[in-house]
Amino acid sequence: MALAGCPDSFLHHPYYQDKVEQTPRSQQDPAGPGLPAQSDRLANHQEDDVDLEVLVNDMNASLESLYSACSMQSDTVPLLQNGQHARSQPRASGPRSVQPQVSPRQRVQRSQPVHILAVRRLQEEDQQFRTSSLPAIPNPFPELCGPGSPPVLTPGSLPPSQAAAKQDVKVFSEDGTSKVVEILADMTARDLCQLLVYKSHCVDDNSWTLVEHHPHLGLERCLEDHELVVQVESTMASESKFLFRKNYAKYEFFKNPMNFFPEQMVTWCQQSNGSQTQLLQNFLNSSSCPEIQGFLHVKELGKKSWKKLYVCLRRSGLYCSTKGTSKEPRHLQLLADLEDSNIFSLIAGRKQYSAPTDHGLCIKPNKVRNETKELRLLCAEDEQTRTCWMTAFRLLKYGMLLYQNYRIPQQRKALLSPFSTPVRSVSENSLVAMDFSGQTGRVIENPAEAQSAALEEGHAWRKRSTRMNILGSQSPLHPSTLSTVIHRTQHWFHGRISREESHRIIKQQGLVDGLFLLRDSQSNPKAFVLTLCHHQKIKNFQILPCEDDGQTFFSLDDGNTKFSDLIQLVDFYQLNKGVLPCKLKHHCIRVAL
């Protein structure tokens, strides 16, 4: 058996050759190449001419080459962060450098710290990969990594943070107070209104809205429920602000569509049967082509003069006719586009823009902030005509999306648990006349019986007040004095405001039937005024005090129906129309944020 690393003189020795020939193959030493032969094979020879020192040196050199070969195929390789072996890289071919001869003790000391060096190198590489902010994360799918990329997720390979950005928005109320709210970038106007309702402890009757107010331009509009607040704020100037107010007429079109569009103002591309359902479908269907037409006062761009022109509103934009009432394509001139614009109401059109009437509207491009030259200013003859044009603009621009905004609150209300009572205002037809004279209460359905029951209740209040006057009251306020001031705690009472201010508040919160407020009378210091909206017109009714048996009462019908205080009067007319054109349904409210 030949030994790797032994000299030729040792292999050609006569005694060694004879032993090899006489030894069977099955009894040969099973040791691998490069290992020394056992010493008992050389124990019986009588003469040994081999130089032992040369033999030892040759065997040491053989062990050195064996160690180098094994170290190349060793399973002990540096580990990466996830505990996997690094891929072996091909070594460059070339002549192997001859290592100097070292003593056996030095060889043993050098072969021990191989694993320690690998661990130290691993720690140094790990410090390079790690950062102070984000540690290296083991890769759960190492088989997906390519040969050239390490199977670890480095900080640079991680996706950016998807956290939604937040922004502070300042919202003002009607009384001048404000609140700064932190909102997300994807918060809609409806979401912000619900948040403000919760923070202000208001009644959520789905009539609150966010108003985009531009005092320097004299414009304002109600945001649609689906609009993003941050996106709208990015188009506003520094002087502009958001207002939080009621708007009962926001979706009144879907409740009473026939009251919004006079027949002479609407033309259809197909025959319409005139029903409410057909009217809604024509506006919500994008394939239909409804047109709103009529005369409007139009302000010329860059000039102070106004012209009365025949205008038509289509899905493609707002056009005016250059020749009478002709709607031929050659006679139509584009005034404004619907896509990149919004429609606003003029706050003080007569004073700021010399408008011919108080019913002005404006089509403002989204890119305009402070300039008035690009504003398309229009003016209608009455409030109903202006409401028709503004409602048609919203329907043609948003279409089905506007109807979905109207349906969402109703769907949420329908999904409420039967055990949970929805919060709603007492002015939303939730009051009925009741009779508690018997053992159980009953609803009074007969209007005449309800009126007589209200009169009896008024007489009962009168007797109670008289008895309190006779016996004396422990309250610091006398009962007669209390009845004249208790109404000041109610939301529907607005104190000393002018007639013009009360009309402005009614218009801002929506010209719907039954919208009302009470205020002090300017002509009579002891009287009050009920301001009521009916058929988009505002009417005023004076509430006069009257005395009976030394007590002060209030009446709307010259003393025929008397009430001990204004709270009782309002409660009565919420149930009964009486001398009013309609019942009191919604009250104007101002909330302090």
TrEMBL record:
The UniProt entry's coiled-coil ranges are none
Q: What is its main location?
A: cytoplasm
Q: Which residues form the PH domain?
A: 289-398
Among Pfam families, the record links this protein to:
BPS, PH, RA_2, SH2
**Low complexity composition bias: which ranges?**
95-112
Query: Residue ranges of the Ras-associating domain?
Result: 165-249
User: Which processes are annotated in GO (biological process)?
Assistant: insulin receptor signaling pathway; negative regulation of insulin receptor signaling pathway; negative regulation of Wnt signaling pathway
Gene Ontology molecular function terms on file: insulin receptor binding
Q: Which SUPFAM superfamilies match?
A: PH domain-like (SSF50729), SH2 domain (SSF55550), Ubiquitin-like (SSF54236)
- Asked if the keyword Nucleotide-binding belongs to this entry, the reply reads no
The alphabetized UniProt keywords are: Cytoplasm, Phosphoprotein, SH2 domain
Compartment(s)? Cytoplasm
CDD domains xref list: PH_APBB1IP (cd01259), RA_GRB10 (cd16141), SH2_Grb10 (cd10415)
Q: Where is this region: Disordered?
A: 20-40, 82-112
Q: Which GO terms describe its cellular component?
A: cytoplasm
Domain named SH2: which ranges? 492-588
Q: Please note every region of biased composition (Polar residues).
A: 82-91
Q: Which family does it belong to?
A: Belongs to the GRB7/10/14 family.
Q: Protein name, please? A: Growth factor receptor bound protein 10
Whose protein is this, by species? Piliocolobus tephrosceles (Ugandan red Colobus)
